[in-house]
Amino acid sequence: MFEFDQYLGFLAFLVILTMGFWLMIFLVAFLPYWIGGSVTELLKEMRAKKKKEKELKA
User: Distance between CA 48 and CA 56 in Å, rounded?
Assistant: First the structure.
């Protein structure tokens, strides 16, 4: 039926497929959340800086 080399090749294929699946889940789920949080914090800092400069001028 199957020889040992074919079995190892099939196991390697399954491992690579599983790793790719979890990498895809990570990229789709966590990366946008991380980028969105970073952008939000950057905007908050920019608004605070503008507000502080406005207060110093007044």
Answer: 12
DSSP-derived letter for residue 1 is -
* 17: number of Cβ within 10 Å: 9
CA distance 11 to 3: 13
**What DSSP element (H or E) covers 10?**
helix 4-57
Q: Would you write out the chain's pLDDT as a tens digit for each of its 58 residues?
A: 768 888 898 899 999 999 999 999 999 999 999 999 999 999 999 999 999 998 888 6
| Tokens (6 digits) for 27 | 């990229």
pTM: 0.57
Dist. CA 49–CA 30, nearest whole Å:
29
